[in-house]
Amino acid sequence: MNHIFLGLGLIFIISINQLAWAGNEGQFLPLADSGSPFSRVHFVPKNGNQIVIAGQSETIPPGVGVISGGVIGEVKNACIEKVCGQILAPLTLYRTFVFMDDKVMKMSFSTGGHKEDETYGNEVHVDDPTLSLVGMARTDENGMIRGEVNRQMTISWANRGHTGLAAFIGPTLGAPIARTCSDTMTEISGFFLEFLTFGINDTFRQAFTVPNAYVSGTVKSDKPRGYVHVMVGIDGVPFSHTAIHYQGSPNDVSTIHTVAIGAKGAEEGYVRVSLFMSNGGQGGCATMQSGTLYLSPLQS
Questions:
Q1: Contact 19, 13 (CB under 8 A)
Q2: CA distance linking residue 161 with residue 211, whole number of Å
């Protein structure tokens, strides 16, 4: 339907659909009814209730983020590439899209990439422009979706929030100490962060979605004249500058700090940040007695 406006001797014809378009609105989030690990996610209105699907402005079903409503996706009864009634695979990264099925908005999971639609400018599936991108999720070893203090396995394409993740080190924080006797940089089990990053497309990142990763803590060597070396690792590989403590006396303790700038390579997707330590090749054992591995708040 079109409306015609007369003014200053000119005739303007404006489509009602065009008036409704506000780009990709809404937000993709876990549904918190089951707690983490989550069995359901949803897409709800946020800063508007319209999304472009197949060249039409469609209304997102009403809902409250993480609480109720919207378009729901279930890990045990999912639509994958628009084929419904399937189970999400474990340890798999999925982009999440919405599509219209006989006037009903549904969510579809896909392992495919995404791109900007050449005609309408919204973000769509790389092979199917009737699928509009709303988010991304990664399943755990049981095919569920995690969201905890040290891991966030969903990310919204539009209206990203801010998430700060942390892994605590040391008994004063209710966690174990970090310790190694290795001569080479070793990943310390149990101290990690997991999150997702979006790109402009599936192979080129947007830098503002990639946070800096930090470690800060109190360290000690059990060897006089010993060393403690500490690094931040990305995806299982030491990444940051090495923070070094030299044991000048038996009771010497230092607080060290280092950062991994832009904790991911060029591609979008899953990132794992972890703690690496060594004795610097000087023998003895290195200990972080208390500390935190954490992210700067990231847009997620």
A1: no
A2: 13
Distance (Å, rounded) from C-alpha 119 to C-alpha 266?
27
Residues near 87 by beta carbon (within 8 Å), at least 6 away in sequence: 75, 76, 77, 78, 143
**What would the two tokens of residue 266 be?**
């060029």
Measured over the CA atoms of residue 201, residue 141, residue 148 and residue 169, the dihedral's sign is: negative
DSSP state of 55: T
- Distance between CA atoms of 196 and 58, rounded to whole angstroms? 27
Beta bridge partners of 40: 74
Report the Cα 187 to chain-centroid distance in Å: 22
* Residue reference for tokens 């409306």: 3
pLDDT digits (tens, 9 = 90+) for 4-52: 433 344 333 334 344 344 456 899 999 998 789 999 999 999 999 999 9
Helix, strand, coil tally for the chain in percent (to 5): 5, 55, 45
The pTM for the full model equals: 0.88
Q: What percent of the chain has pLDDT over 90?
A: 75
Structure tokens at 282: 């000087």
Measured CA distances, 185 to 56, 117, 263 (Å): 54, 45, 18
> Which of the four pLDDT bands, split at 50, 70 and 90, describes residue 257?
very high
If we measure between CA atoms, which residue out of 73, 75, 74, 68 comes closest to residue 98? 73
- In this structure, what token pair is assigned to residue 286? 């290195």
Q: Mean pLDDT for the chain?
A: 88
Whole-number Å distance between alpha carbons of 153 and 288: 28
How far is Cα 230 from Cα 241, in angstroms, rounded to an integer?
A: 9
pLDDT at residue 134 above 60? yes
| Cα gap 140→89, rounded to integer Å | 9
**Closest Cα to residue 278, out of 228, 220, 224, 225?**
228
